[in-house]
Design goal:
- This protein is an alpha+beta fold.
- The protein has 2 domains: about 200 residues, UDP-n-acetylglucosamine1-carboxyvinyl-transferase, Chain, CATH 3.65.10.10; about 190 residues, UDP-n-acetylglucosamine1-carboxyvinyl-transferase, Chain (Alpha-beta prism), CATH 3.65.10.
- It is built from 13 helices and 22 strands.
- Helix 3 links the parallel strand 6 and strand 7.
- Helix 1 crosses helix 7, helix 10 runs parallel beside helix 11 and helix 10 runs parallel beside helix 12.
- The longest helix has 14 residues.
- One of its GO terms (biological process) is aromatic amino acid family biosynthetic process.
- Keywords: Amino-acid biosynthesis, Aromatic amino acid biosynthesis, Cytoplasm, Transferase.
- It catalyses: 3-phosphoshikimate + phosphoenolpyruvate = 5-O-(1-carboxyvinyl)-3-phosphoshikimate + phosphate.
- It is found in: Cytoplasm.
């Protein structure tokens, strides 16, 4: 599916944030490992979360609507994570404690993404895993060691995977050099909701075995909301409902990031509203919220002056997001310099053109937002990837621009 976008005068209105993808993944896997039935209420339904739902079914869970009935113990399974890194990494950890042989595989890009540090941590705990990239063959067994150290400098998902199985079998998880640390806080909050008993010292977790089935309502997603909040900051005023201002989601950072650029941002009890302001260039480290990088690069392309955006893990996402945004912003006539870990962007007046999504949902949505204010028509040939995280993106866009 492709789209043609013509510039709009302004973007105004309000929409409801979809449910959080991060919380949905974690709740599904914890429901798989819990003692007793769980209900995951208002989950996100997207390509990635469906991959996780299919994974927990393969491990032996019964799913009846929002209710999940876990098996006595996860069984061996074939897991196709498609392009979901969260699904694959947590499933790999679950397979390591499972009751048989499992294979974890995924789509082309996911097979290129790193798994090595997680594999090595699981092996040190006693897991039997062949290979360090997908597909990975796992022989489930009781882990011999209950203390494990993981280098999470490439992905915080390595830490999340260990924390989740740690809550099933009991484990000390020592997390080193983590990027995207707020995602670990999302994991910790979800563990608490499922009755996990743990103490922590910074990012060292000491977890007792035992997860209790529960009813868990998935909160709204700051990651998805960020695209339309950025549109409000660039072109008008947009209010996003169903956002908890006290949530620990990484991409809640969109509030402070847009304010730093110069936008007006208001936060209410259950909403965030962004309004156009006099935007200026900024220097920002996005390492704790790398999913915001593409849309913040768009904001920088409209801001006056120079911006520098960095996040060292960006080249290992669904695409090389540094390269992807450099290519697209250059096609918009924006002066951009690619750095090893980010971009230097000289703001201006972007022009329309034909852009590439690199089969990356966040690149696709960011370039749609960029095109709304560009000079002239824009063509984005392939936007089907948005269903990975935000299937309702274009419906919500129409509510704001007509």
């Amino acid at each position: 599916m492709g789209v043609i976008i013509r510039p709009v005068g302004e973007v105004t209105g309000e929409v409801e944030a979809p449910p959080s993808k991060s919380y949905t993944h974690r709740a599904y896997f914890l429901a798989l490992l819990a003692e007793g039935r769980s209900k995951v209420k208002r989950p996100l339904v997207s390509d990635d979360t469906l991959a996780t739902l299919n994974a927990i079914r393969a491990f032996g869970a019964s799913v009846e609507g929002e209710s999940i009935i876990p098996p006595e113990w996860p069984k061996g399974a074939f897991i196709d994570a498609h392009e979901s890194g969260t699904t694959a990494r947590i499933a790999l950890a679950v397979a390591s404690i499972g009751g048989g042989e499992s294979t974890v595989n995924g789509g082309r890009r996911l097979r290129e993404r790193p798994f090595g540090e997680l594999v090595r941590a699981l092996r040190k705990a006693g897991a039997e895993i062949e290979g360090e990239r997908l597909p990975l063959r796992v022989i489930g067994r009781n882990l011999r060691r209950r203390d494990v150290e993981v280098d999470a400098s490439t992905s915080s998902q390595f830490a999340t995977a260990l924390l989740i199985i740690g809550a099933k079998v009991g484990m000390e998880v020592l997390i080193k050099r983590s990027v995207s640390r707020p995602y670990i806080e999302v994991t910790a909050r979800t563990l608490k909701a499922f009755g996990a008993d743990f103490r922590r010292e910074g990012f060292d977790f000491y977890i007792e075995p035992g997860i209790t089935g529960t009813s868990f309502t998935v909160p709204g997603d700051y990651s998805s909301a960020s695209f339309f909040l950025a549109a409000g900051a660039l072109y008008g005023r947009v209010k996003i409902r169903n956002l908890d201002p006290k949530d620990v989601q990484a991409d809640r950072a969109i509030i402070d990031a847009l304010r730093e650029f110069g936008a007006e941002v208001r936060v209410g009890r259950n909403y965030v509203e962004a309004e156009k302001g006099e935007l200026r260039g900024v220097e920002m480290d996005c390492s704790d919220f790398p999913d915001l990088f593409p849309v913040l690069a768009v904001v920088a392309s409209y801001a006056e002056g120079r911006s520098v955006l960095r996040a060292r893990q960006l080249r290992f996402k669904e695409s090389d997001r540094v390269r992807a945004m450099a290519v697209n912003l250059s096609r918009m006539g924006i002066r951009v310099r690619e750095l090893p870990d980010g971009l230097e962007i000289e703001g201006g007046r972007p022009k329309g053109g034909q852009f590439e999504t690199f089969n990356d949902h966040r690149i696709a949505m960011a370039m749609v937002v960029a095109a709304l204010g560009a000079r002239g028509e824009s063509v984005i040939p392939e936007t089907g990837s948005v269903s990975k995280s935000y299937p309702g993106f274009f419906n919500d866009l129409r509510r704001l621009v007509g």
